[in-house]
Structure formats: structure tokens, C-alpha cells
From TrEMBL:
A Pfam family assignment: Bac_luciferase
GO molecular function: monooxygenase activity; oxidoreductase activity, acting on paired donors, with incorporation or reduction of molecular oxygen
Presence of keyword Transport: no
Domain Luciferase-like: 15-123
Entry keywords, A to Z: Monooxygenase, Oxidoreductase
Record InterPro entries: Luciferase-like_dom, Luciferase-like_sf
Natural source organism: Micromonospora coriariae
Name this protein carries in UniProt: Flavin-dependent oxidoreductase, luciferase family (Includes alkanesulfonate monooxygenase SsuD and methylene tetrahydromethanopterin reductase)
Length: 309
């Protein structure tokens, strides 16, 4: 299964229309970002998409447990699942722009684990429920508590394989999906431009777990500068890169670790490697520059790669 993560500022695009474009390109559905100051409400839009389109899957991704109580999340998911059985995708997480833009910190891992326990108890098993995770502690906690994980571990097949293996170390049949920033590009200039909007939030993941992501010691301060330059008030937009001196070498390192670029063949080869690592499904990041412009090509490349892998 392959879905497109819809992360467009409120009023810029209709999620139902974007879902139609995703389906026309050969994808299976859409996942809707949750950040109240930036995007339309993901639960309301999920109902609109599932009612108005034949999408196989649609739902919130990533629903912020830093802002929402797990009991209210479970109630919403139960209601959606009752109206659209077997078509609801729910991905929860600790929160990124959603909490930062309210002046809050993401919940502690212990508090997050407690919230996952509530969700697992209250959400029906028929609904596809995943927890977003990047680092090893969150991956392990999510698979243990929730039983399904959306890995956001970048685009390096070795690290992705390590993350999948960790997720399945306790239970071999746990569903493992992957959040991937990918776009078909013609050259390095295109690749740099496409990746620019997402590099800061990617770098933040590297900063939190540099050993897990094998960040060289010589690049760690530069990667931190990339993360600090990200403006979460404009997360998911072309203006997310704020002011600041960012080393070009660090920018390129973050791009290569977190963004799949290149022609259709190169993109397909990378997704074949992800499939070989054991990934069950893919959420494509819609905030990467140029994704919608070349969505048909990207969809074919991803599908080809996952099939061959």
C-alpha cells in the first residue's frame, strides 16, 4: 500500500482534490497532516475524503498525542471506522510542529507509552493503527505498546533495515510502514531545490539520535545548524528554511540520508531496497518540492521498486 501525505496549508488546496490526484496517479489513498495552526483538521478531512473518493485508505498522519487526548482520538477513529470499515489509516506520534507552534514540548516517552496503551485498548482492531517513530527507543516502545509502526528513519537502506529489524525483534508479524521523502528529479540542482523545504525537520531527527543514524562527528555541528534553521511556523511549506548560516556539506548529508531523489530508475531501485528490508507500506511525504508536479512518475517508480523488492 502506498499513500500520499497531504501537508498543504489551510486554504491552499482541497484535500479531496489532492486525494483524487493521488488516486489518479495510481496511489492507494492519502494521509492527512495534523498541525492546527498550519493545516485543515485531519479528522474532518478524513471523513470528507473517504466519503467523496474510492480511496482504499485515508486518515490522519501524524495525529499529535502532544495535543490530543488518546481517548478522544480513539473515539474519532472508532467513529470513522464504523462509517468506513477497513479504510481508515491512523498514524499517531508525539508531535512536531503541532506542539512546537503552541509553545509545548512533545510528551515524554513514558507519557507517550501510556497514551499508546489507551489507544490500543479503545481502537478497533479493524482500523490500521500505527505509531510514528524515528529513534530506537521510540521504535521499540511503539511496537511493544501499539503493535504497528511507521518508521521515519530516512532513506539509507542500511539504517532502514536496522529500524525494521528492531521493530520486529519482539514480534515478527508486526506491521512496519515507512515514511519516505522522495521525488523524481533530473539533476542535483533539482534535487537540492526539492529537498530544501524538509531538511530542517530531517536534521532534527539526526540531532536527537546521531549514533543511531551514523552521523560523522565532523558533521554533527553542521547538521545541528540545519535543524536550527527550520521554521516550524512554516513547516511543510517552501518558506520553512529560516535565516542562518548552514554549511553546504551538512545540507547535502541530510538530503542524502533522508530524501530519495533521481530519475525513475534510481527511485525504483531505492524502494526495492526498502521492500527487501521488510517494509509493508509507504507514506510518501507531500511536502517535498515537486512531488505533486511529478506524482505520476513517482507513483510508478515507487510501485515498481516495491514490487521488485
Amino acid at each position: 500500500m502506498i499513500v500520499l501525505n497531504v501537508a498543504r496549508p489551510a486554504g491552499e488546496a482541497d484535500p479531496v482534490e489532492l486525494a483524487g490526484a493521488a488516486l489518479a496517479a495510481g496511489l492507494d489513498g492519502v494521509a492527512l497532516a495534523d498541525s492546527p495552526r498550519l493545516f485543515p483538521d485531519c479528522l474532518v478531512e478524513t471523513e470528507r475524503v473517504l466519503s467523496a473518493t474510492p480511496a482504499r485508505l485515508a486518515g490522519p498522519c501524524v495525529l499529535s498525542l502532544g495535543l490530543r487526548h488518546p481517548a478522544t482520538v480513539a473515539g474519532a477513529v472508532r467513529t470513522l471506522e464504523a462509517h468506513h470499515p477497513g479504510r481508515v489509516l491512523t498514524v499517531v506520534g508525539r508531535g512536531e510542529s503541532s506542539v512546537r507552534n503552541e509553545g509545548l514540548a512533545p510528551p515524554s516517552l513514558r507519557a507517550y507509552e501510556a497514551a499508546l496503551d489507551v489507544l490500543r485498548e479503545l481502537v478497533p482492531a479493524s482500523a490500521l493503527l500505527l505509531g510514528a517513530a524515528s529513534g530506537p527507543r521510540t521504535i521499540a516502545a511503539t511496537t511493544a505498546r501499539l503493535g504497528g509502526v511507521l518508521i521515519d528513519a530516512g532513506a539509507d537502506p542500511t539504517i532502514v533495515g536496522k529500524a525494521v529489524a528492531l521493530a520486529r525483534s519482539a514480534r515478527a508479524d508486526v506491521p512496519v510502514w515507512m515514511f519516505v521523502r522522495a521525488v523524481v528529479t533530473d539533476d542535483e540542482t533539482d534535487a537540492d531545490a526539492a529537498a530544501a523545504t524538509v531538511l530542517g525537520s530531517c536534521a532534527a531527527r539526526l540531532v536527537r539520535a546521531p549514533d543511531w543514524f551514523d552521523v560523522p562527528a565532523t558533521l554533527r555541528s553542521g547538521v545541528a545548524a540545519v535543524a536550527e534553521a527550520h521554521d516550524y511556523r512554516r513547516h511543510g511549506t517552501a518558506d520553512a528554511r529560516g535565516a542562518g548560516d548552514v554549511p553546504a556539506e551538512a545540507d547535502r548529508f541530510v538530503r542524502e540520508r533522508f530524501v530519495v531523489t533521481g530519475d525513475r530508475r534510481a527511485v525504483a531501485e531505492r524502494f526495492a531496497a526498502f521492500s527487501a528490508a521488510g517494509v509493508d507500506g509507504v507514506v510518501l511525504a507531500g511536502a517535498v518540492g515537486g512531488v505533486l508536479d511529478r506524482l505520476d512518475e513517482l507513483s510508478r517508480a515507487v510501485r515498481d521498486g516495491l514490487t521488485k523488492g
